[in-house]
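Minutes, structural biology subgroup

Action item carried over from last meeting: produce the structure token record for Calcium-transporting ATPase (Salvia splendens). EB confirmed the sequence was re-checked against the source entry. Recorded below for completeness.
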Amino acid sequence: MDNFIPPEFDLDHRNRSDEALKKWRKAVGKLVKNRRRRFRYAADLEKRSEAKEQLKKLSEKIRISFLALTAALRFLNGAHFKRTHPEPVEEDIEKDIQNGLQEEARHAGFKIHPDKLGSLVASYDIKTLTKLKGIDGLADRLNVSLEKGVNSSDVPARQSIYGANRYTEKPFKGFWVFVWEALHDLTLIILIVCAVVSIGVGLATEGWPKGTYDGLGIILSILLVVMVTAISDYKQSLQFKELDKEKKKIFINVTRDGVRQKVSIYDLVVGDIVILSIGDQVPADGIFISGFDLLIDQSSLTGESVPINIYEKRPFLLAGTKVQDGSGKMLVTTVGMRTEWGKLMETLSECGDDETPLQVKLNGVATIIGKIGLCFAVLTFLVLTVRFLIEKGLRGEISQWGSSDALLLLNYFATAVTIIVVAVPEGLPLAVTLSLAFAMKQLMKEKALVRHLSACETMGSATCICTDKTGTLTTNHMVVSKIWLSGKSKEVDASGHKDALDSYISEQVLSVLLQGIFNNTGAEVVNVKDGKRSILGTPTESAILEYGLLLGDFEEQRKVCKILKVEPFNSEKKKMSVLVSLPDGKTRAFCKGASEIMLKECSRVINADGEVVELSEEQVSSISDIINGFANEALRTLCLAFKDIGNGSPEDSIPESDYTLIAIVGIKDPVRPGVKEAVKTCLDAGIAVRMVTGDNINTAKAIARECGILKDGDLAIEGPEFRSLSTNQMKELIPKLKVMARSSPTDKHILVKTSRNGLGEVVAVTGDGTNDAPAMHEADIGLAMGIAGTEVAKESADVIVLDDNFSTIVNVAKWGRSVYINIQKFVQFQLTVNIVALMINFISACVSGSAPLTAVQLLWVNLIMDTLGALALATEPPNDGLMQRPPVRRNESFITRTMWRNIFGQSIYQLAILLVLNFIGKQILGLTCSNATEVLNTFIFNTFVFCQVFNEINSREIEKINIFHGLFGNWIFLGIIAATVVFQVIIVEFLGALASTVPLNWQLWLLSIALGSAGMPIAVVLKCIPVKNNMTASQHDGYDALPTGPELA
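Output recorded by EB:
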């Protein structure tokens, strides 16, 4: 069928244009029964266009404000505006900023109006800020201390006066809205009209209550369909609502009540002191207080890719921008809907997510089947009507028309419309949403937050996972395990203290070591509640700082040295540097980073007596052996070094070479429990696992072997070497590549791009830093780390791994495969029902002039195969067998040959049984009673329903014979099957007047069940018929296809 689907329905899940989205919706045409329901979770392209226009205006506004700021700075500098004592604030400025301020705000100690405060940052008004005495004057007017931050008791008042940091969101739909939307189904509306007319004609001809039965039956069936559909859709929306709540759990470091703490960005208030680090998203508008080399990426607001430096003369920070480099503190001035970002987010929140590739493809399938169904419905109506007219003409009654004739034609029309209801598989694309919602909810319980629907289904096709080492394969609980210092290696006792080092190093060496640890660090020792101290920072930084605290006093070292300049850790340079002023007035640079890289930048070493001596070639070789020895023990190695510069200034650049080596530290980070088993699961599933890390190659290889990633014959390479290869060389090497060490984000991006474009792989890639964003964008699935990941990485990701565990990534792949195969099961089931329902009515109409299945009965069948079928089959949990088969290729047909075999086999059996019963059923069953026709039609209806019940069970497995595996643990499936059977009994035995049925005796009930259950052994026979597999023998050179065939049963 994929060959018949128009190209408009074949969309990539990445980089799709709004034009492509418009084309497939246009291709659907008018053949949509309920546009509100079908496109409920589709992107609102009009709102998206509105957001783009809004962003364009905002970009222009920021550009003009930036030019005005530049001009103002030139004016101020030209006028020699710097003074020892700032000018007193002019009275008119004071009146202006307080004009319109509420009494409540004045009593609370605030001296600036929210609107004036907002425009100060939004318009980059440096002149007004200068007149207000800069950041200190502004803090005074906001009644906040720049050291202690906001008092928690003031938060409600600040939210009341200056607003909360939230944007207006699309209101959540209540249950009755879903009922109303379900009623917008065009075919149901037509059937309601038919039912009303039927009741009117019936009352006139047959009187009350007999004349209302047909019409009431249709109306009650429609109400049942509407209510079940609305309940299913409402529960889906609740699941998405829960997931949205999880997505909004974003925290940022602030100083409140004099202590540093993490708060939700939605709880920020005006006056908060926010600590910004690399990868953070600026959570509100604010003013820069202090920091080092703060580089801000404003592309989310301006579209400009060039970041800007933020410092005292350019202090304005806008919400929604991202910290690309450096660190700093900011004073929050504007929050929520008063910021430009808040207004933009209000529009974006109404845009919705793009449809997934599977949803779009199934819309194409639904369109084709719908057209076929429409033709059959029209043909059925025409055949029935023509036969009726011919028979009427043969009786000579062509000129005689009564209400009974009109009622009969109306029933024909209702049957034709109901065939359309059954034939147009509205539930196909919606089943994808249902399955994805279910999978996303379950994945949340397994510590994976799916941000984009398409990622869940795409992950099921992943052929390669490029994973980080630290925190993903390892525990991320780091401790300094070994240290080389003054020519000696020593094991570090976790409960150790400086006495352990005093025996062989001088006080001077210890002093330099502590200076290097405490000043050159990205971590902080902060006060938390109850007067306790805590270390905040990355696990690597925290491990080194924790070791330093065993040896000396942090506060004492920080007091005697003044930090002049900081170059934060950079994944390209793989080092962090700092320039400090010593108590004697001299300047010293400290640097730490990747050991083998730093060793090349060192020309001297400090010995045990504290003397600086030249590094000989023998010493360099010996130290390299030490580094490799640490690395072979799976330790992460870092080198600490310093360089005295003399009398320096903050403007001095930090040296790049000629350092003095202090120490080599080996940091232990154990492999996570269960990782080896998870890697084996991936390999069994045909998913290649590649470790991409910035660590030393020996450390990486040791960890990779422990995890089961690197085996004999596999390749490990360093990033710079990989980068230097040609594209063809890369394509030859990648299939054998298992470890890439000392890699930069650029190397990771090249690896992902070559794997996707050159080898046709479906690549999942993990990332935790700002620089990982390009690789995650390039990959088919971007996976961000929930604990170690920055907000920029999470924003770029499709899935957030909340526990940073590789095993969780494997679970995402398993659920992705489950979504894909569950939809295949549902499609197989629904197409079988479609074919049988269409053909039985059409053939019967052609041959006998009547349709055995009435409108009410077809509506019930539609409910079984659509909403209930989707609930039963699309929510099947994954089984371990899913990870013992190869991934689905990009170009593989969704409806496979195996599925067509099952569909046609079951359809032929069901049609044969039903047609035989329809034409010679009375003779076979020995029906001679007065209502034999009604009994036969009821029996046909009952048998048809039981055929679908057992076919639903058959559909649980497309290839395997054992369809009962896991059945009794799936309460949703069992509940739906039980509800279907119970309601079928009620319809047949008690609702005969409404459903055109009569009660059946127990023999006919048993026979119906027997004929339905006969589909199960037929399914076994069908699964034994070999089907040519259209998968190629290998995915590409180096990857052999996994075994397929009988063993899968």
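Discussion: The chain has 39 helices and 28 strands.
Next step: EB to file the record with the rest of the batch.
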